[in-house]
Each structure stands twice: as C-alpha cells, then as structure tokens.
C-alpha cells in the first residue's frame, strides 16, 4: 500500500522507548519504505529540531509519546499551536495509558487522535496504517 501525494516523506517521532520506536519505524517501513522516520526522545529537543526544518521540508506527520522527557507530548502540541507553520501537520499522541482524561486533553489541544500503544507486535502495523491515514494527499 503506497501513500502518495505528500512530497516530503518524513515522519517525526517523539519517543523515548527504544522498543516502541523500533517497532513503529519497522511498521512504517513495511507499509511504504519511502517513509523516513526521525526519532527524537525528548520533547524540548523535538520542538528545537522541528524549528530548524525549512517550511518546504516540514514533516507529513508528527507522532508524540504522551510521556517523554522535558516536554510531554501534550506540551509539545501546546507549543506547536503557537506557530501557524505547524497547523496543517497532523499530530498524534500515543501512550501506554488508555486514560480518557489524557485522550480528552490531547484532543482539546488539537491532536488528530490519541492512540493507546499496542501490547502485541502485530498491532503496530495496523496502528501505523491508521496514523498514515491522517497524512493529507
């Protein structure tokens, strides 16, 4: 399955768990190997890195772990909401917690969705496909 249309094939991932990072990267690569995933394990460094990217090279998708160091995924979304250049990029929060409070807070701040991380490896592919469904063609 190819996801065509977005010129920049970049997904920026904020994740500090190396297992979750590897599983999600592998799933995106299996769906379409042209996707490049850049992982930054820290919220503050994630925002700093994103600020260095030129407008024409901005990522197609942002995936943010709810509980990453320095700035949580929700705090990153709040920060990005202050900049119009990031408004069109889908932001997905994912977490080991299935808390309805965390989900509501994430959605209120403008996350495209809040996803509970899977407990089994096979589900990463399904979740990655779902995440890519938010990428605008």
TrEMBL record:
Q: Which Gene3D superfamilies match?
A: 3.40.50.2300
Q: Does the keyword NAD apply?
A: no
Coiled coil stretches, renumbered: none
Q: Name one GO biological process term.
A: phosphorelay signal transduction system
**Highest taxon in the source lineage:** Bacteria
Quote the InterPro entries the UniProt record gives: CheY-like_superfamily, Sig_transdc_resp-reg_receiver, TCS_response_regulator
Cite the Response regulatory domain residue spans from the record: 10-132
Q: Which UniProt keywords apply?
A: Phosphoprotein
| Residue numbers carrying 4-aspartylphosphate | 65
Keyword Phosphoprotein on this protein?
yes
Cross-referenced PANTHER family: RESPONSE REGULATOR RCP1-RELATED, TWO-COMPONENT SYSTEM REGULATORY PROTEIN
Q: What is this protein called?
A: Response regulator receiver domain-containing protein
């Amino acid at each position: 399955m190819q996801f065509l249309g977005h010129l920049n094939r970049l997904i920026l991932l904020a994740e500090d768990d190396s297992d979750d990072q590897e599983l999600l990267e592998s799933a995106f690569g299996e769906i379409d190997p042209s996707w490049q995933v850049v992982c930054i394990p820290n919220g503050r460094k994630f925002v700093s890195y994103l600020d260095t990217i030129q407008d024409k090279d901005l990522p197609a998708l942002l995936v943010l772990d709810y509980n990453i160091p320095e700035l949580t995924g929700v705090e990153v979304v709040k920060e990005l909401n202050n900049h119009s250049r990031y408004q069109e990029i889908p932001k997905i929060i994912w977490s080991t917690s299935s808390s309805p409070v965390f989900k509501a807070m994430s959605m209120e701040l403008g996350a495209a969705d809040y996803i509970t991380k899977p407990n089994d490896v096979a589900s990463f592919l399904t979740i990655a496909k779902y995440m890519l469904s938010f990428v605008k063609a």
